[in-house]
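Known limitations

Files may contain more than one protein. Parsers should not assume a single record per file. Below, a two-record file is shown to illustrate correct handling: read the sequence, read the token line, then continue until end of file.
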Amino acid sequence: MTSTPVHVTRKRPTVAVLGTGIMGSGMARSLLRAGLGVRAWNRTQSKATPLAAEGATVTETAEEAVRGADVIVTMLNDGLSVAAALTAAASGVHGGQILLQSSTVGPDATADLAQRAADLGLVYLDAPVAGTKQPAEQGALTVFVSGPSAVRPSVEPVLDAIGQRTVWVGEAPGEASRLKLVVNTWVINMVGSIAECLNLAEGLGVDPQSFLDVMKGGPLDSAYLQGKSAAVLSGDLTPSFALSTALKDTRLILEAAGRSGVTLDLVAASADRFERAEAAGHGGEDMIATYYAGRPAEKAGD
């Protein structure tokens, strides 16, 4: 297929958001606050419906969502879901539309999706994000982007709306996704460390708050440590990033590490913990529910 010329425009783009779960709905709201037109679609339409009251056009099909949009944002669970959405939207796309692919899918799926986009005449930007529910809703994500720099002016209003920082990594799809896996490795290992500290405190009869008080304000303290610990201690595990999604990302990291000859012992252990917590029914809770994988057997489900 012949390549479609890239038309750079500085107008305020209309954005089709495919996938309005925890992250996608937050990003859609940030786009609406910035005054951009939003067309929203989700496979389960009830997850997109609340956006209509905030000014979005909620469509029944992916094809309707992308028709007439300047930028298409995909925020779905995995590469297969994104591929299915592109297939469903195919008859509504037009050459030169920008696909901002923000789902965390890993390098291999990124290559496949980039080819699918090219076949549809779309300009592909590999654009995973760092952040969870609250940053998505506040327009405070960090967006890693790799793709043709010629389209930056066209997509900057979208990036500025959803993120507080955009890191342009390179021109080739996959460069941003590889960086995202490194960032997620840090997050996953940190979550596991927090969970294990709370597990050990419980096991030794130490008040977990004493641990948090000792850490507070010191060089090893962080808002992440305090926030995730507070979620466990309060029992409020409303997901800002679901454990089952963290498990999916952990598997992507291990797959990429294996192909590159790298051994990641901590991530492998985190995957095992996530699997045990998911099997115990915590998959839909926040990823700090990995805490439950380390409790004594008689308390693991409490």
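...continuing to the second record:
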Amino acid sequence: MTTADTTPPLRIGLLGTGPWARNTQAPALAAHPGVELSGVWGRRAEAADALATAHGTRAYTGEEGIDALLEASDAVAFALPPDVQAPLAVRAAEAGCHLLMDKPVATTVAGARAVAEAAEKASVASVVFCTLRFAPETSAWIAEQAAVDGWFTARAQWLGSLYAAGSSSEYADSPWRRDKGGLWDVGPHALSVLIPVLGDVEHLTAAAGPADTTHLILRHTSGASSTVTLGLSAPPGAAGVEIELRGERGTASIPGWAGAETAFRGAVDALAEAVRTGVPHACDARFGLHLTELLAAAEEQAQAAG
């Protein structure tokens, strides 16, 4: 005879109603067996109503709606532009809610630091959703490579065609992505793979490429170096993701992964584990702050050189 699990579900509210919320966060939260989707907040009431109705929960809007959703939730997930996310994450932490944030946490070091400090002061758990750290296929590969010594160099290339001629992607309507480019949008993904395998970045050089493309050269604490190419404006035929490691044991290339919704479920699991155990996840708000520091330094270099 087995004993039924009486652990109450983690009540997670969702802030945001855009494409990521509709396609990834809301479906993953609504389907998760250990989660109660406690509500959806949006700046537009009609969008919040539509998304909440689709997933059988309550809609919130306006300033008072934020407070009401925080009160009804144990944690909040964010599907908002980074510099809208950051102050709301501080507000959520101060209200005692755990944080499941999108990357980057913020596009300013001050904004990201405020989030990390608020989470620590309130003793709330936090996870930053860097996709490759939570997709089952890639997270297992990262752990496997991090356990291997002797890496010499690495090459990461993440090129999207979001802003290529003829693109019809709904994500191209995001003003912050158009303004900040591939460095800030996909840079966190690449760095979140390289750092746990090769060690922290102790020296960084950045240069601008065509359109929004940015090239990075990194020296890591392990002694290895890596090169990174990031962009959202590549021709469709040039788009793709590659991460390759080279070292004493040969080469290793990152595998494909099932998709963002599956990865987001992994991030939900990671947050729930951090809440249960009190042990911070490696990809938490403090790590999110460090990513912002690196990206801000790269942006400053690339603009100065460009």
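Parsers that stop after the first record will miss the second one. For reference, the second record is described as follows. The mean pLDDT is 96.
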